[in-house]
Every structure is written in C-alpha cells, then in structure tokens.
Design goal:
With 86 residues, the protein is mainly alpha-helical. The chain has 3 helices and no strands.
C-alpha cells in the first residue's frame, strides 16, 4: 500500500489530509514557489450515495459474499424509520 494512502486505514483519514494540506500551503508560502494556490474540497459523502440494492446484487452475482453474509449486510444497512409521538 502506498504510504500516502489514508482511506480505510485506522488512525489516518481527514485530519491527516488537513495537516498535509496546511503543510503544503506553508511550504509554498515560505518558499514563495508560487503566488497562487487552488484547493478543491469534495464535501459529499460518496459512500452514502451508493445504491445498496445494486451493490448487493453485484456481490451476489460475483459470488464475493454468500447469502448469509449478504443478509447480514442488508440488515445492517436497512434504514428503518421510527416515529415516536405525534
């Protein structure tokens, strides 16, 4: 795995990427290597937009998970809404 990889690595993630970003900006400012800097932020949560029905069908079709494992995932990701009170 590349040392720059932070996704799905315990103890790493967004905070580490922010530190890297600020260090890079500091380096650019200190060395005056560039007078401009463009930063793009992807604020969407991509994993919350995955169509789980399609994902589960593909996992089954490719035999990546067995039926019991798929059922476990379906139950884990099943979105149940409860209304309490009025």
């Amino acid at each position: 795995m590349c040392p720059a990889q932070v996704g799905f690595v315990p103890g790493k993630g967004t905070p580490l990427n922010l530190i890297r970003l600020f260090e890079k900006i500091k380096q650019i400012h200190t060395n005056k290597t560039s007078s401009q800097c463009i930063i793009f932020f992807d604020m969407s949560n991509a994993y919350n937009t995955v169509n789980l029905n399609i994902l589960f069908k593909r996992l089954k079709h490719l035999a990546i998970l067995n039926e019991a494992e798929l059922e476990y995932l379906r139950n884990m990701y099943d979105r149940v809404t409860l209304k309490y009170g009025k």
